[in-house]
Q: What sequence folds into this?
């Protein structure tokens, strides 16, 4: 059996209609997993799930819309996943937001609360909801998409960086609590990836040149650069890794 075989596994991926989340869902499905495609917009979920199913030649992707800011919607997401595919083996917390750019001295309270709520609290809620499945099976993997922003300060996205640093600690806490149940919890910390989410940081020729010039590999990331790390953490290849963060940034932090 391949170390990366995910046949029969059920994977729930939030924020999976574009960018990093979409790439992760596609690659998990490619390695045999049944995947839930989820974001706020039902039509986008349907489109991505249909494309994956057509590529695989069978129904392996299920679309379920959900706004991660609402606990009742997250519970409905988990409940519908159970109804459609069964118990959850892999949770990928990828959905996040950052509605504010600029110094923290100027951020509004509602934006501060929104960032921390979406990027930390929703991950905590989802983990609580899926852990019973994993504990019952004595097997499972939770993957939180953090950021290299969680390792350093920023003059423009400081609150976002705080939330991503908290995700690193959330993974460590969950790993320590649930390791005795054979449940692994890890983070992936991407650098700047060319996604719609991060467009404000790279969407001009000069901006991309400036950003990539500080990267040893001399390019920005692509969504698929992150997906391989998720496959590793979800599969038997990552069976003895927990409480850690894989930094995938083209060498920036080096």
A:
């Amino acid at each position: 059996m391949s170390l990366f075989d995910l046949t029969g596994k059920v994977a729930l991926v939030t924020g999976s209609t574009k960018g990093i989340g979409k790439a992760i869902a596609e690659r998990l499905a490619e390695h045999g997993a049944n995947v839930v495609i989820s974001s706020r917009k039902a039509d986008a979920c349907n489109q991505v799930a249909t494309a994956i199913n057509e590529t695989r030649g069978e129904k392996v992707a299920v679309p379920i819309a959900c706004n991660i800011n609402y606990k009742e919607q997250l519970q409905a997401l988990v409940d519908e996943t159970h109804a459609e595919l069964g118990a959850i083996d892999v949770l990928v917390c990828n959905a996040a937001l950052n509605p504010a750019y600029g110094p923290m001295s100027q951020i509004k309270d509602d934006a501060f609360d929104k960032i921390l709520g979406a990027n930390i609290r929703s991950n905590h809620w989802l983990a609580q909801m899926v852990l019973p499945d994993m504990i019952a099976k004595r097997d499972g993997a939770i993957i939180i998409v953090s950021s290299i922003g969680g390792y350093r300060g920023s003059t423009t996205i400081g609150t976002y960086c705080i939330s991503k640093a908290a995700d690193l600690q959330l993974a460590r806490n969950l790993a320590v609590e649930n390791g005795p149940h054979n449940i692994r919890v890890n983070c992936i910390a991407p650098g700047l990836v060319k996604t719609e989410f991060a467009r404000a940081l790279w969407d001009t020729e000069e901006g991309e040149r400036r950003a990539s010039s500080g990267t040893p590999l001399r390019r920005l990331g692509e969504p698929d650069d992150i997906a391989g790390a998720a496959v590793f953490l979800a599969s038997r290849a990552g069976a003895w890794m927990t409480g850690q963060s894989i930094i995938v940034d083209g060498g920036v932090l080096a």
User: Anything to note?
Assistant: The chain has one domain: 10-247. Residues 109-137 form the longest helix (29 residues). The mean pLDDT is 94. The beta strands are 10-14, 34-38, 61-63, 90-93, 140-145, 183-190, 245-248.
